[in-house]
TrEMBL record:
InterPro entries recorded: Aldolase_TIM, OxRdtase_FMN_N, YqjM-like
Domain NADH:flavin oxidoreductase/NADH oxidase N-terminal: from-to ranges: 4-342
Entry keyword Cytoplasm: no
Molecular functions per Gene Ontology: FMN binding; NADP binding; NADPH dehydrogenase activity
Cofactor dependency: FMN
Name by which UniProt lists this protein: Oxidoreductase
Organism lineage: Bacteria, Pseudomonadati, Verrucomicrobiota, Opitutia, Opitutales
Provenance organism: Ereboglobus luteus
Amino acid sequence: MSILHTPFSLKSVTIRNRVGVSPMCMFNAQDGLASDWHLAHYGARAIGGAGLIIVEATAVEARGRITANDLGIWSDAHVEPLARINRFIKAQGTVPGMQIAHAGRKGSISTAQNGGQLAANEPGGWEIIGPSAVAFGGALGQVPREMTIEDIRAVQDAFFAAAKRALAAGVEWLEIHAAHGYLAHSFYSPLGNRRADNYGGVFENRIRFLMETVAGVRAVWPETLPLTVRISATDWADERGGWTLEDSVALAKRLKAAGIDLVDTSTGGGAPDAKIPVAPGYQVPFAERIRREAGIATAAVGLITDAAQAEEILREGRADIVLIGRESLRDPNWPQRAARELGADVKAFAPGQYARAW
Ligand code: FNR
């Protein structure tokens, strides 16, 4: 019996299998508004049998976008185009999830291929903000403005408003993006944060931005629905004092106590020159350690491309669900293919319209 194709419940939500589509920016929105592209793209992956789709990083304010073409949820006008997608996804039996995000100092990126990071006064650019006035580095050379306490409150309020709008749009599984060097990660990682106030310095202070954001979102997000956080479990820069797996275990314990239901365990993005040992399933050990040591559900992600590989991760108790990123771009029907390969009932994950194909 394939574990991958058995249901998984978190709070009142049950996903029909343990396959989620990982959040992936499409860079295909105007003014943050979801388009027909998003309906077709996410719709195809719901038809393809995913139990969960986590819609891409959706900016809580316009300056929290990576590029000017990111999805957003900073106004009520953003709700209905997302709701349309979520209605369709749900009608296919897939749980509609969404990631709410703020890019921080990794924003204001050109939409042109290899266009780099734009200054505030260049067309398509804006003033970027971060915990400290330190550029990310590498190709991202713009220096962010150090956030004041008022800025911090304003961004947190934007997260709370985004969570309410996500609920209004029919989202049933909400993820706070705190990975990949974006705003929340740049607060908790020592590499991005030089602050001398309550939001910088020791671990307790560096995680404060995220913990306050989580508390406020938890307060407006229904108790019955899953609330998750994606973290970068390591900066892959231990030797330079970067964020470590041990830090992540400690953070995950705090997140659990704060009412977070699952840690989506990614890594990296915090340092431009980090040496990352990319290989199949290379981030799974992080999901495993956090699950075991913090006692919280985890999602494993990163070069999980093969049905047997995914099944083994779950069978060995290394994670509760797997998220498929690029492989689901190559094959939207990955969950159906995996069902066939693992001997599960493909028809349970394929729409009636396609029954004759299986
Ligand atoms: C991503 N990734 C990503 N991660 C995230 O947390 N929010 C996002 O919006 C995006 N956007 C995005 C766009 C594209 C085109 C890619 C390829 C990736 C990272 C993604 O969710 C996943 O963690 C990685 O791609 C690793 O998983 P795979 O692709 O090896 O299965």
